[in-house]
């Protein structure tokens, strides 16, 4: 708490003495304008049964703990407005490439991604029934997504959009999940490797002159891999333009490090130009401990070169106790994260840990 209190106190003094002292230099002025402190987030699905009073109490506590933004997985004007009334930004979290809406499955099964065996996600969802991945190469898919995000951006109470599942299907799952599906993924299996639809194959051939069907080990082809990174990058570019046209922010939940993102889900987030990124540094999924949170943040921040802020996504059920939460937050902030984003039930203990950790590490701009 000490640093935060000191910061609040000194800014109060500066405010009070403003009329008595000469104006501060422009540099100092700019610094105080930009200095905002750590920015923490929460991912949540709004419960429509929450009352205004309950929300006011919850968001007051959030703000006090340093939470400055919430990603809402559903639209609820009430939740958005109460959050904003408590100086917390309200962003709309919408899944991007994984889209199983019945209307779309029925009207456009041809828009879905195909695996290396030639099976479509429309009829053969991998791992789980809700894994219905769209093909990123189709213009119709990009148009559909642009319209969908635009619907959210048009609303005056929405501060920004938050992308999730903005990637291919996991060709490799996090190691701790292998046992759940009774599979060993030490190599890229054809049933989980996407997208081998006619549109992707034709576009690849046009770009490189290569017919991917004639390549003996397509999973080992660097240009085919790069081609697929770029296909999702182009979807992100399109959605970034849509968010920019509304002068609103665009952030994304992504895989924990650029390396894991490339290897497991063909996601190339360090090459995006969005407002901020929340890598899901869920240590338990990878059988890692909390010290890994710091190394993962460091890897991401190094790849970004200060292009946009990185907020470390933390999975609350993976922490054994509040002391571990505090350590996880310290590890993230001391390695260059601009804040953290919490997933799971957020308890008073977590909030206290967040506050304590944030006060321990002096705020530094990226
Ligand atoms: Zn495709």
Structure description:
With 366 residues, the chain is an alpha/beta fold. It is 42% helix and 12% strand. The protein contains 13 helices and eight strands. Strands 6-5-4-3-2-1-8-7 form an eight-stranded parallel beta sheet. The protein starts with a helix and ends in a 6-residue tail after the last helix. The chain binds zinc ion. Zinc ion is lined by residues 113, 135, 137, 195, 197, 199-200. The site of zinc ion (ZN) has 7 residues, from α8.
Kindly list the characteristics that best describe this protein.
366 residues, alpha/beta, eight-stranded parallel sheet, 13 helices, binds zinc ion
Hetero groups in this structure are: zinc ion
Instruction: Indicate the mean pLDDT.
Output: 91
Number of strands: 8
The SSE string, one letter per element, is: HHEHEHEHHEHHHEHEHEHEH
Determine Rg (CA atoms, Å): 22 Å
Content of β-strand = 5-15%
Structural class, judged by helices and strands? alpha/beta
Parts with pLDDT < 50 across at least 5 consecutive residues: 1-33
What percentage of residues falls in helices of 4 or more residues? 40-55%
For the record, give the distance between the C-alpha atoms at the N and C termini, rounded to a whole number.
Answer: 22 Å
Strand order of the largest sheet: 6-5-4-3-2-1-8-7
Number of helical elements: 13
**Shape annotation:** globular
Query: How would a crystallographer describe the biggest sheet?
Result: 8 strands, parallel
């Amino acid at each position: 708490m000490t640093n935060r209190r000191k910061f609040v106190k000194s800014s109060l003094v500066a405010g009070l003495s403003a009329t008595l002292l000469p104006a501060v230099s422009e540099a100092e002025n700019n610094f105080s304008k930009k200095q905002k402190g750590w920015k923490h987030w929460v991912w949540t699905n709004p419960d429509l049964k929450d009352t205004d009073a309950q929300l006011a109490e919850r968001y007051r506590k959030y703000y006090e703990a340093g939470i400055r933004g919430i990603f809402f997985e559903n639209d609820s004007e009430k939740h958005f407005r109460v959050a904003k009334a408590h100086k917390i930004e309200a962003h709309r979290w919408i899944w991007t490439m994984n889209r199983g809406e019945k209307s779309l499955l029925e009207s456009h099964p041809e828009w879905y991604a195909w695996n290396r065996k030639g099976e479509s996600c429309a009829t053969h969802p991998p791992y789980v029934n809700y894994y219905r991945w769209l093909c990123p190469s189709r213009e119709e898919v990009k148009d559909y997504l642009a319209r969908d995000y635009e619907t959210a951006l048009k609303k005056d109470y929405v501060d920004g959009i938050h992308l999730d599942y903005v990637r291919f299907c996991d060709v490799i799952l996090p190691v701790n999940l292998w046992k759940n599906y009774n599979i060993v993924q030490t190599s890229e299996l054809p049933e989980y490797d996407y997208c081998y639809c006619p549109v992707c194959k034709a576009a690849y051939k046009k770009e490189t002159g290569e017919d991917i069907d004639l390549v003996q080990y397509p999973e080992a082809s660097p240009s085919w891999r790069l081609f697929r990174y770029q296909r999702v990058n182009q979807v992100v570019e399109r959605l970034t333009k849509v968010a920019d046209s509304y002068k609103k922010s665009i952030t994304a939940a992504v895989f924990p490090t650029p390396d894991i993102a490339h290897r497991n889900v063909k996601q190339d987030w360090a090459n995006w130009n969005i407002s901020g990124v929340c890598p899901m540094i869920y240590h338990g999924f990878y059988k890692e401990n909390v010290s890994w949170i710091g190394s993962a943040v460091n890897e991401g921040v190094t790849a970004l070169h200060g292009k946009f802020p990185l907020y470390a996504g933390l999975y609350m059920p993976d922490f054994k106790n509040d002391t571990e939460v505090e350590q996880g937050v310290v590890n993230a902030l001391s390695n260059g994260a601009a804040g953290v984003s919490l997933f799971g039930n957020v308890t008073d203990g977590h909030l206290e840990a967040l506050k304590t950790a944030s006060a321990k590490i002096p705020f530094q701009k990226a």
